[in-house]
Structures are given as structure tokens and as C-alpha cells.
Design goal:
The protein is α/β, with parallel strands linked by helices. The protein has 14 helices and five strands. Helix 3 packs antiparallel against helix 7, helix 7 packs antiparallel against helix 8 and helix 8 packs antiparallel against helix 9. The model has no long low-confidence stretch (mean pLDDT about 85).
Length: about 350
């Protein structure tokens, strides 16, 4: 039995790639999270826009060649959700797994995203980063948290805030010119939201422990009980606790429904997130970033590639097949579109100004 992990890259120019990975369930038997060496890229497609119908068509075409997985693991994207839902109309037995990390991030956002103290924390971190830059305290700058998906890495910012609050603590005024005085000036107001930071960080520690269990060991009856014990550390009236309890209940039923015994169920899409991050790194390092062509590196980043497997791949993929794929999928190449745009703009007549 294997699981399909699906995700779409961030948009580069007009292009956006959707990738499907194949991961055997057996890789979780050792109690370690799967790596890219355990995965196989079975689908790669590029479009300017993706709809649920497009995702469904890609999955149907892919599974026609590979056979059906026991489940599809995805994040909370609406296009992916719709595409998997449409496919389930044809294959009702196909299970869908909602990525644990995104569920937790959305729960944190719902509880803390609109709170004034959270906005204050972000403001202090942003201004503090600028004030500490190129100073003797530069090493104490807050971690960079991107706006999109900030709640997936928010525990790093909270750990930094708690450490800075500890360094800045004390009732007396710091002596002029000391490092403590400089830090207090750069992070003015951070001490005033200590209670908020402590509460937020304490909940994140519990959630991180739950993720550590389920991401490394997968979900079965044993890890389900371990996660429930950790979840009880959150207050009973905490909405995040209710959200996670519901997620655990739904997905343990899925694990039982698949009739795979106590083989753990993969519940994290971190693997494909890592793959997309490596692709982004490769493209950004390219002197002439060509997203559509560079996406062909994706299959090479998966599995244990050696000279034998690469030779076999080259022999089974003639130049004619590669050229055909490239012309079909790489029609939005910046390198080719740019000259056409320049030519079109130059030919455009400039209207005479009205007198």
C-alpha cells in the first residue's frame, strides 16, 4: 500500500507546477519520518492556473498508469480539495488525508490571528529586526516569518520572544550604554505582552510534541493514544484542542477503514514541502531562472538516484519524448516570451497627445 502526496508550487511568473509523489506506507515502520529518498515523483504538470477539474484530470491520468493509492494526502488548498473530491466520486473507497501541519496552523490562526497582542508582537519583531541590524546585537534579531503560512513556523518567533523577555527582565532601569538598555530600546513593548507570549508558546509546545509523534511515527492506535494524552495538556475550553480531537477521530477511522492493520498512516505533507523548497532554491540560483524547464529537476530529487537508475531513465526517455513534453508544458518560458513581448510593444503605435 502507498499514499499519494499532492501539492502545487508557488507561482513563478505565469507558471505553477503540480506534483504528485508516491510514498510506500512501509517507510514509517521504523518510526522515522520519510525522506525524499523514500519517494517517487509520478506526476509533474505545469499550468498558468489550476482548477479542481484540472487536478482531478491529472490524478485520474496518473493513477491509470500507477494504480490507485490507499489515500491522497494534501494541504487545505481549495483547488486540491475540489480535485480530490471529484475523483472520490469515481472512486469512493479512495481516502483523503488532511495535512496535520496545516490543520494546526489554521487552528492557531483562528484563535490568535486577530488578537491585538499578536499584531503587537509582529510589529515589535519587524521594527526590532531593523533596529538590531548592523549593530552589536545583530545576532539577536528575530527569525524571519513570511506572511503566507506564518502560523506553521510561529513557534520559532515565540521562542525568540520568550528568550528576549528573559534577557530584558528586571525591575530596575538598565545602566546607560549597556547591552540590556540597547535591547530594551530596540524591543520596546515586548515585556508588556509577556503573559500573551507565555500562553501562546505553551500551547505551541504541546502542538509541536503532537506533531513530532505523528510526523515521525504516523497514525495508528498506538500513536493515537499518545497524541490524545498530549492533547489533554491543553485547557478543556481551548478551541485548538477541539479541532485536533476531531481531526484525530476522523483520521484514526480512516486508518482503520483502510484495513492495513497497525501500519501507520502518513499524515504530514512535509516531504513534498521540502521538495518544493529545493526546487525554489535551484531556480533562484539559476542565472536565467526558467521555472518550466527547471521543474524537470523534481524527479531527480526523489528516490535513491545512482548511475544505473539515471542511465535507465535516459534510455527510456528519448529526446523526441522530452521535446514533446517541453513544448506542451513549457510554453510560458520567460526566455521565449520576453522577445515576443518586446517586439509587440515596439510595434504598438503611440497615440498623439490631444491639443
Amino acid at each position: 500500500p502507498w499514499i499519494a502526496i499532492i501539492d502545487a508550487s508557488i507561482a513563478f511568473g505565469q507558471a505553477k507546477a503540480t506534483v504528485v509523489l508516491r510514498v510506500p506506507l512501509a517507510v514509517l515502520k521504523d518510526g522515522c519520518a520519510p525522506t525524499l529518498a523514500n519517494a517517487q515523483c509520478i506526476a509533474l504538470s505545469i499550468k498558468t492556473t489550476w482548477t479542481g477539474e484540472d487536478v482531478c484530470a491529472l490524478l485520474a491520468q496518473t493513477f491509470k498508469k500507477t494504480g490507485l493509492p490507499v489515500a491522497i494526502l494534501k494541504d487545505g488548498g481549495t483547488d486540491l480539495a475540489k480535485g480530490v473530491g471529484l475523483l472520490q466520486n469515481t472512486f469512493p473507497a479512495l481516502a483523503a488525508i488532511q495535512d496535520l501541519g496545516h490543520v494546526i496552523a489554521n487552528a492557531l490562526k483562528a484563535k490568535y490571528g486577530s488578537k491585538s497582542d499578536f499584531e503587537k508582537l509582529l510589529g515589535i519583531a519587524n521594527s526590532g529586526r531593523k533596529k538590531l541590524f548592523l549593530t552589536v546585537l545583530s545576532a539577536l534579531r528575530p527569525p524571519k516569518i513570511r506572511t503566507k503560512g506564518r502560523f506553521q513556523n510561529i513557534s520559532k518567533l515565540l521562542a525568540w520572544a520568550r528568550e528576549m523577555q528573559e534577557l530584558m527582565s528586571g525591575q530596575k532601569r538598565a545602566a546607560n550604554g549597556t547591552l540590556k538598555e540597547k535591547l530594551r530600546l530596540a524591543l520596546n513593548g515586548l515585556s508588556q505582552i509577556k503573559k500573551f507570549v507565555d500562553t501562546f508558546a505553551a500551547e505551541c509546545l504541546v502542538l509541536n510534541d503532537i506533531q513530532k509523534i505523528l510526523k515521525n511515527k504516523g497514525l495508528n492506535q498506538s500513536t493515537f493514544k499518545m497524541a490524545k494524552i498530549e492533547l489533554e495538556k491543553l485547557p478543556k475550553n481551548c478551541p485548538i484542542r477541539a479541532t485536533l480531537a476531531q481531526w484525530l477521530s476522523v483520521h484514526i477511522r480512516t486508518q482503520c477503514f483502510l484495513s492495513i492493520g497497525q501500519i501507520p498512516l502518513l499524515v504530514s505533507s512535509d516531504l513534498i514541502e521540502t521538495l518544493m523548497g529545493q526546487l525554489k532554491f535551484i531556480i533562484e540560483r539559476s542565472p536565467i531562472p526558467e521555472f518550466t524547464t527547471m521543474t524537470l529537476a523534481v524527479p531527480l530529487l526523489c528516490g535513491n538516484q545512482d548511475s544505473k537508475s539515471l542511465t535507465s531513465a535516459l534510455q527510456s526517455c528519448p529526446q523526441k519524448m522530452l521535446t514533446s513534453w517541453r513544448s506542451k508544458n513549457c510554453s510560458y518560458s520567460v526566455r521565449h516570451v520576453r522577445p515576443e513581448l518586446l517586439c509587440e510593444i515596439k510595434k504598438t503605435e503611440v497615440q498623439k497627445p490631444l491639443h
